[in-house]
Amino acid sequence: MEKIPNTDYILIIGSGARETIFIKKLLNDSKSINKDINIICLGNNNNPYINEKFSKEFFIDFLNNIIKKIYNNKIEFAFIGPELPLELEFSDMLEERNIPCIGPLSNYAQIETSKIYARNFIKYAGLNEYSPLYVVLDNKVNKENIINNLSNFNNFVIKKDGLCGGKGVLVQGIDFQNKEDVIDDLYNGIKQNEKILIEDKLIGEEFSLMSITDGNGNVKHFPPIQDYKRLDEGDKGPNTGGMGCVIDRNNSLPFLNKEDIVICENINNIIIDNLNKNGVGKKNKIGYRGILYGSFIKQRNNKIKIIEFNSRFGDPECLIALTLLKNNLYNICNEIINKNLRSNLLFDNSSMLAVYLVPRNYPSFTESEIINIDSVSDTIKKNIIYGNIEENNGNLYSLSSRTMIYLKKQNYLSDCFKEIYDDILLINSKNNLKYRKDIGLKYLFNKNI
């Protein structure tokens, strides 16, 4: 590995679409205030955009080596995109070396990395009314205990305790039909020392609300965005990392009112406040610094429930959130690392859609294929954000996960919908990528879901 020149850097951990949109906005916004920035990106694929912009892209496995090499350089701050580096204590390692990190320390990140910890913490924070009925299964239970526990639920959801890349959830009625279908699998899982969370199946409209905070109790919120988790149209097929997302005009979703949004903002505030109270001065020198992603559902009875929390920007939600953000991202990052997040976040009021194109056999493993977008216009290309894609010898290759995401912003959702799918037909004309064709579709016909 070559020696890194002696200069100032911003360290980005991750090399997918989420990190690409963050880097793009960071570069554009820093230029607007005549600030030249240098970026080191630690990733796990040769993302074409990152390769084009930066002379070096290092791999996540080499973090310790990178830290040694950059120790004598000034690192303004680090930004962590994916969840796994948070669990692996990357933030802790960076903060120990006085490199401020936008991404919480590992014990705070348990709010994402352990679903059981999260449910217990929600109760600790006095928010249990927003949790569904749930029970924890561990290796102390036998098959009879499992059967008795499941009898408390009409329909239920099975969640593995740890990180699963958005694919660790099984929903009755979609992934399995009857309780009897899963008893043996549950028993075998817990005998392997897995912990399993069983939750009441919630019916309604899911959405996310992300908040950003500076480790000093200052919190600002992004607008609500709806992600489409299932692989296929009509919310069928397996869970994925997200196949696309939507936001309507005026930073809204058709099924939410202002009171719903305030409830979710307050929940995020309370979680962050309690994480700080539970951590600062006891285990950590700083509070929760970074993004808290609240995943919520508005049930048919109009009540809000918490599905889960993540400790980083959602992907694909952040593609919309950062595109609509009017604030200078470089300035916001500096407020965060200086524990002085004072600027109110301002957003473009446009409607917006984001649609992922993925390998044809996703989420199963698939062979890499050449991606050809040479004939696509520059106007369309500028709204393509590369994800799990690699450039070698001048060719683009799809990898095993989500390949690229296409963005469209317009005054009205109907215009977004028509234009994004017309453009995707052109993008995919020489490729064999899969995508959902119904992102945002239901809101074109029913504004009162």
Widest sheet: strand ordering: 3-2-1-4-5
| Tally of alpha and pi helices | 14
Largest sheet: 5 strands, parallel
Unreliable stretches, pLDDT < 50, 5 or more residues?
1-6, 55-61
Strand content: 15-25%
* Portion of residues within helices: 25-40%
DSSP summary, beta strand count: 23
> Structural class of the helix and strand makeup?
alpha+beta
Q: State the distance separating the first and last CA atoms.
A: 55 Å
User: What oligomeric state best describes the polypeptide chains here?
Assistant: single chain
Give average pLDDT, whole number. Answer: 89
Instruction: Give the overall silhouette.
Output: globular
Quickly describe the structure.
The protein has 449 residues and is an alpha+beta fold. The protein is built from 14 helices and 23 strands.
Molecular structure report:
It is built from 14 helices and 23 strands. It has helices at residues 17-32, 48-53, 63-70, 84-87, 90-96, 110-113, 115-124, 143-150, 183-191, 258-279, 317-324, 329-337, 378-381, 413-427; strands at residues 9-13, 39-43, 57-59, 75-80, 101-102, 134-137, 156-160, 169-171, 196-200, 204-214, 219-221, 226-227, 230-232, 236-239, 244-247, 289-299, 304-310, 351-357, 370-371, 384-386, 389-392, 395-398, 404-410. The strands form six sheets. It has a five-stranded parallel beta sheet, with helices on both faces. It has a five-stranded antiparallel beta sheet with strand order 12-15-18-23-20. Strands 6-9-7-8 form a four-stranded antiparallel beta sheet, with helices on one face. Helix 1 (17-32) runs parallel beside helix 11 (317-324).
